[in-house]
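Justification of computing resources. Each target in the renewal requires a structure prediction run like the one illustrated here; the chain below, 321 residues long, is used simply to show the kind of job we budget for.
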Amino acid sequence: MMILVTGCAGFIGWKVSKKLLEEGHMVVGVDNLNDYYDVKLKEYRLKDLQNHKNFIFYKVDIEDFEGLKEIFQRYKFDAVINEAARAGVRYSMENPFVYMTTNANGTLNLLELCRRYQVGKFVLASTSSLYAGQPMPFTEDLPVNTPISPYAASKKAAEVISYTYHYLYGIDVSVLRYFTVYGPAGRPDMSIFRFIKWALEEKPLEVFGDGAQSRDFTYIDDIAEGTIKALKPLGYEIINLGNNNPHTLQEVINLIEDYTGKKVSVQNREFHKADMKATWANIEKAKRLLDWEPKVSLEEGIGRTVEWFLENWDWLKEVRL
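Resulting structure tokens:
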């Protein structure tokens, strides 16, 4: 297939693109390479993709309708996977406008171009942050109408406009709600990346709250596999992709100590109002519709991530957090 992957230099977009290329598909990747976090990581991921002959890259922002239009005119896509987004709950409170323009308007741009150029399949990366305040484990039918951060609100807007384009124009849409994705070449604003780097630097770990909060940490390869499986025709479906096995931050810290061989100290900060105390995915729908469930345990995933850090420490030590 010929697939457009937006946000291809981002963490999840990179791994999804890489797996598609390894399966023999053609991938056109777009990314604006913004500096929300250190671009060294985006450059690393992009260079990895450019080793594949079936990969074509355009530096384009999904807010740029005309720039995207030129790409849609040039290629006949079988599907679009929208991984481009402004991520991060806390930063969305500092700059809410860019979250809405990228996550909502950018998604609208892509959907409108799918309509105009008859692209029948659209996969949207969404978030478990929408489930704040809901009973666990989170199921896709919960009424997620009270997002507690601009980030979550912008993702809800993207889900809603995706449904509108499915209803009006028949575009087949898979909305994937990801649960705390981690792994090699991850985002440096996420806890596991920061904790490993701080541990290797023998610096204190900054923890918001007491460390008892839990997350359904999900390894990047599992997320990429589920995303690609969601390319199948489904109509309009919202599907959780999570590990279905939450762990506390303290458990993560203990594993990082084990794999790095470093004893760490912790500096506790006040728990952030826009954060969630816990996440836990019910993945029965993913099992039923996608024949998907995670394969990588937290122990194995942390081990692989620490190994990647050690192999790349010569440049990772310069990455800013």
